[in-house]
């Protein structure tokens, strides 16, 4: 009786939502599985695209896992973990974003029945970590190095990796054309780490095959003033001056006060302003530069002055393009025109202005340092070009990774099946429950070939049985066999040139296991009511604060009579 009369102890503020225990864990797993189901159909060469329409009315058509995850405004706290791993895979490796989300979702799906049967999640986590360690070791063991090959051979191998990545994108129809372009661009920048040294410019119109690669820098013609037409548009071996100053006639600031005793003195002030600008322009001409680029405006006076002296100029060049011109031509951006020496001027073999579609492009080619490249993309619809740019970004990242890490594995689900087989065999040597958990981890890895078949419209069960039979061959010759998307059977992925860098798989297995373990280790969620109401108020005040008095002004002040 005494125990029944004890008052209830209140730890948390009233209205705090707490959910804990097994139901909470199952709910988190279900949320993650729902997110994985969204991107499931985008995997592989026959994957479907998603059209995402946001509240601003922008539409995005994409096949890229990371892009879709970013655009889905996911609010569930556990499911947000999958968004994070997709982003990290995108920034670290560039490709495999759909794979990583699918794997994480599948690991959790396999763990769910064990959790429902009362298995402690820590036992699962321990086994999953062991399995992931074994899987990564096996991937490293199966990887083939491309070190020590000649440049031509390397280019061929890298183009195959890029084509494998591009085969699942919208531009998959022209994958060979774009793969060789991407490889040339990446080799052009060498081991330069800054990705922005490869510029991608989008020009609507034409077809995909009209896209081209510039071994140097290309950017759209900037805003031009009177006199621009008289300037020469082509130079061979010009010197290039890069500036970060305005070349415009500046009148005296309005708030300056000058007292004159004689009206003639006013003319001397006006002359001084003109002399300042002419002095600057004269110094630019004397430097010997034939192309003058500035991040700030170059006015009509300067444009005409340069045109009279056969010099090309462009103002308001974006910061990124100016830095790329500097890197390519070996010039240095100047903040003054005083003492411009030859060492700070850039140089290239050919400068010309060309028409691309209905845009004019300034193109610098034959640059000495050659640490930059520009891909000019053509295509019909804007959304199509946007998706092509995202696809090329993935391919560029993959080729860079393959160049740096130089080990590749068989794609098309081959590596997943081989690792799965290895883990199943290993599980048999373990006594105790963890045999079951590692077996379920191995089964989860089969989601990649299964999904590839489902997306291509083949019978997944049939194809997976064929794959299991191939991979079970004792000699190990079946290891490179994966799904053949064209025939619906199985084929040697290495022979079919379906390759991917080993780092993609290693990173995906690592990140997916980490995410699954993280979700499994959470057994309670506490939601603070204040944070929710604060968010609601902030949104309301943002809505009401426009025009009429928002909630902050409505009603009565404190202490006023009601």
From TrEMBL:
Heterooligomeric complex that forms two stacked rings. Residues 531-543 have a biased composition (Low complexity). This is T-complex protein 1 subunit eta. Molecular chaperone; assists the folding of proteins upon ATP hydrolysis. Known to play a role, in vitro, in the folding of actin and tubulin. Its main location: cytoplasm. One of its GO terms (molecular function) is unfolded protein binding. InterPro entries: Chap_CCT_eta, Chaperone_TCP-1, Chaperonin_TCP-1_CS, Cpn60/GroEL/TCP-1, GroEL-like_apical_dom_sf, GROEL-like_equatorial_sf, TCP-1-like_intermed_sf, TCP-1_chaperonin. One of its GO terms (cellular component) is chaperonin-containing T-complex.
